[in-house]
Amino acid sequence: MRRRIIAAALVVFALAGETAHSQESLASHLVAAAPAANPKVLALAVRAADCARRQGLLASFHHLAVIDYSLPSTQPRLWVFDVDKGRLLFQELVAHGRNTGEGTARHFSNVDGSKMSSLGLFQTADTYYGNNGYSLRLRGLDAGFNDRALERAIVMHGAPYVSEAIAEHLGRLGRSWGCPAVRQEVARGVIDTLKGGALLFAYYPDSKWLSESTFFKCGTGADQPRQVVASAADAAPSHG
Fold first, then answer.
1. How far apart are CA 200 and CA 90, in angstroms?
2. How far is Cα 1 from Cα 89, in angstroms, rounded to an integer?
3. How remote is the C-alpha of 85 from its chain's centroid?
4. Helix axes 39-54 and 2-33, enclosed angle (nearest 10)
5. Phi/psi zone of residue 27: left (φ > 0), alpha (ψ -120 to 50 degrees), beta?
């Protein structure tokens, strides 16, 4: 009996080691493909995605989009990756919500009508044509942080207020009602790449989200939330 317990424990440790190695390998490929992105944010995105897979929320994923809302809106802060090939497909400007901040994002919410962006891990759904043209529905996977995304109609779409010219003229991009809006010229390409089950990870050093999201707790001890907060940037209390 004791031998069986020891054997089972060894299997668990081996699987944990393989998972950690797989995460590190993918993260290193993404970092190499997108040197302008914060490598710690990319590592968190890979970790959250792998945790969602391990929780049974998805079988696999082939494309991953990462938004770093800690950067000003005038800088490219959306990266779209082909996970299978470790390639960067898009590096783009992306708008945040009207009540999330001016040029820099500060506040986030999961509340309908807040006109704020949401943080966390999303899975893409279907496309449709709406008031903002060709759009991509997003299903929030992060309970309490973005799981009302469908109800709030938080979608990816193109917008005329997202462009380098607007950024230069206003000193910031225009703002959405909470949607991650992109340049109209690339909207269809980005949306068609991500539609149908890809993952989108929206980051900001928000202390509540970093410490409470279940996607940072797979196979970790009780002290893990503190380690996660320290792993990306100084955490800021910004969740509404």
1. 13
2. 52
3. 19
4. 140
5. alpha
Q: Give the pairing type, strands 63-68 and 199-203.
A: parallel
The strand pair at 155-159 and 182-183 is best described as parallel
Fold of 2-232: L,D-transpeptidase catalytic domain-like (2.40.440)
What is the predicted pLDDT for the residue at 60?
87
Could you say which DSSP state residue 136 is in?
E
Confidence tier at 174 by pLDDT (50, 70, 90): very high
* Whether 207 contacts 230, CB under 8 Å: no
| pTM metric for this prediction | 0.86
Q: What is the pLDDT of residue 222?
A: 42
The b-or-e profile of 216-229 (16+ CB within 10 A means b, else e) is: bbbeeeeeebeebb
pLDDT of residue 12: 33
The confidence score (pLDDT) of residue 23 equals 79
Paired residues of 110 in beta bridges: none
pLDDT digits (tens, 9 = 90+) for 78-132: 999 999 999 999 999 999 999 999 999 999 999 999 999 999 999 999 999 999 9
Side chain identity at 195, as an amino acid letter? K
List the strands of the sheet with 133-140, edge to edge. Answer: 87-92, 78-82, 63-68, 199-203, 120-130, 133-140, 155-159, 182-183
For the chain, the structural domain boundaries read 2-232
